[in-house]
Amino acid sequence: MFIEMGEEALRFWHKFLWWFHSALTLGAILYPGLAFSKLQHIIVSPLNIFFRSLGPVGSPLPIDIEKAEILGVGEIKDFTWKQLLDLDACTNCGRCEDVCPAWETGKPLSPRKLIQDLKGHMIQISSNKGPASENPSPLIGEAPNEAEIWSCTTCAACQEACPVYVEHILKIIDLRRHLVLAQNKMPESAQLMLRNMQMRGHPWAGAQSLRLRGDWTTNLDLKILAEGDQINTLLWVGCTGALVDRNVGVTLSLTRVLKAAGVDFAVLGEGETCCGDPARRAGYEFQFQLMAEQNIEIFKTHHIQEIITSCPHCYNIIKNEYPKYGGQFKVIHYTQLLWDLLKQGKLSLLNEIHSTLTYHDPCYLGRYNGIYSEPRQILKMIPKVTLKEMKRSRERSFCCGGGGGHMWIEEQPGTQKISQKRIEEVIQTEVDTVVTSCPYCLQMFEESIENKDSLKAKDLVEMVELSLKKSS
User: How many CB atoms lie within 10 A of CB 248?
Assistant: First the structure.
């Protein structure tokens, strides 16, 4: 073949074959190293960073309940390509484990182990050939077990800490979806929560379940929307703000502050139902979709354009997840609104409050939606207040333990309450008050503060109302 070629052709083939053999040899050396060692992260991790989600944090993909053949994730192949890329990209560094409130308080969940177990299962399934691959071993129980899956509070601390943008939360929610929708398996306390949402339109049991949603509005001078009424701005109260004594007080404070600032708003009263967040985080997508569609229809019927919320969970789901179901509204958390009103001079904080306090960042307000500065700016405007930061604050804030359905899912025996761990940090900060802007956080702290004479839990709007009052 080469005998009849000229010198130029021979030189070309010599170069080509030399480079071809060099590339082949290099590939033979690099492939085992990249495919079967930690060196693969040199390629996979940058890819995962490039393809990271730019949308809202922890927002699950919608499921068409009527048409979907697969509900949640029961086998490794049910994950999306990006979720599988996450597994390969994980460097097993343990940063997620270091910040996980479930792991730190002795619960079964380690976000690092969860991802590594899923990765190991993926490798095992992909390496199987023949009849065994047609009937793969179950994902739940072998990789993560049910106790791990239900330990997550969806606080997103793991995702905030991950250097390669692995998304843990959506995998856990997809696994919960499969357990709830396909296998009808969940903790008993989660069953009670979901049953209450179906029957009563809210997740609460006990004394709260005996109350009517509009009871808190009795004898108040408030606009309560009736059929045919229209309003631009709605105050969305939320289940906890309407039904739990401690948080009803916060709701009343908020209405008084808004009226003092001249804000024109209305409430739904008995017409309000749950936003659906507890059901969605617990994996019961069907109930969430029913509630979301019902609420969106109510908002549109009353021509509502702007929604004020006090609960970060309501704020997050209406703002970031309702749009996928046709609900496009301007959603404002009250801390954002109060800061705007203060800057506009519509509110003035004149009354001195002699207090040394710290601010706890709610997960769904901070890590999920980036609202960190407004609450602190408001507190700094209150005369004689001293604001001290905890060691873990802002993006690194430690969870209260109430998210992901855990306001209603019972604590695992033999483990420390996450809220108790957070209160220990508050005490170490040497303050007399812990302030937050979330009804879940407030209730969790109230339950965990043993000596209420030396430490109090307050909602931020309660502090604002106190400072609005004239000094006696």
Answer: 19
Cα 354 to Cα 191, 253, 338, 455, distances in angstroms: 45, 20, 21, 14
Cα–Cα distance for residue pair 267/88, rounded to 1 Å: 48
User: Which CATH number, 3.40.1350, 3.40.30, 3.40.50, 1.10.1060, labels domain 50-182?
Assistant: 1.10.1060
> What confidence tens digit (pLDDT) does each residue in 269-309 have?
888 999 999 999 999 999 999 999 999 999 999 999 999 99
The residue to which tokens 């207090």 are assigned: 355
d(CA 222, CA 252): 11
Cβ pair 111, 168 in contact under 8 A: yes
Q: Where are the domains of the chain?
A: 1-34, 50-182, 211-340, 347-468
Backbone angles phi, psi at 224, to 5 degrees: -110, 120
Class in CATH terms, 347-468:
alpha beta
211-340 and 347-468 share one CATH topology?
yes
359 contacts 393 by C-beta, under 8 angstroms: yes
pLDDT digits (tens, 9 = 90+) for 81-91: 999 999 989 98
Predicted pLDDT at 472: 36
Q: Can you give the pLDDT at residue 331?
A: 97
Q: What is d(CA 202, CA 209) in angstroms, rounded to the nearest whole number?
A: 8
Q: What is the DSSP string of 316-328?
A: HIIIIIGGGGT--
- For 458, the token pair is 């307050």
> Model-level pTM?
0.87
- Amino acid type, 405: G
Chain centre to alpha carbon of residue 268: 26
Q: Report the Cα 407 to chain-centroid distance in Å.
A: 13
> For residue 195, what are the contacts with CB-CB under 8 A and spacing of at least 6?
none
pLDDT tens, position by position, 382-430: 999 999 999 999 999 999 999 999 988 888 777 899 999 999 999 999 9
- The token pair at 262 is 């001249």
- Tell me the pLDDT band of 227, cut-offs 50, 70 and 90: confident
Predicted pLDDT at 218: 83
Closest by Cα among 88, 103, 109 to 39? 88
Place of tokens 């301007």: 330
Is residue 186 helix, strand or coil? coil
Instruction: Say which CATH architecture domain 211-340 belongs to.
Output: 3-Layer(aba) Sandwich (3.40)
| Contact (CB, 8 A) for 79 and 168 | no
pLDDT of residue 453: 75
For residue range 15-47, list pLDDT tens digits in order. Answer: 777 787 777 776 665 555 555 556 566 777 888
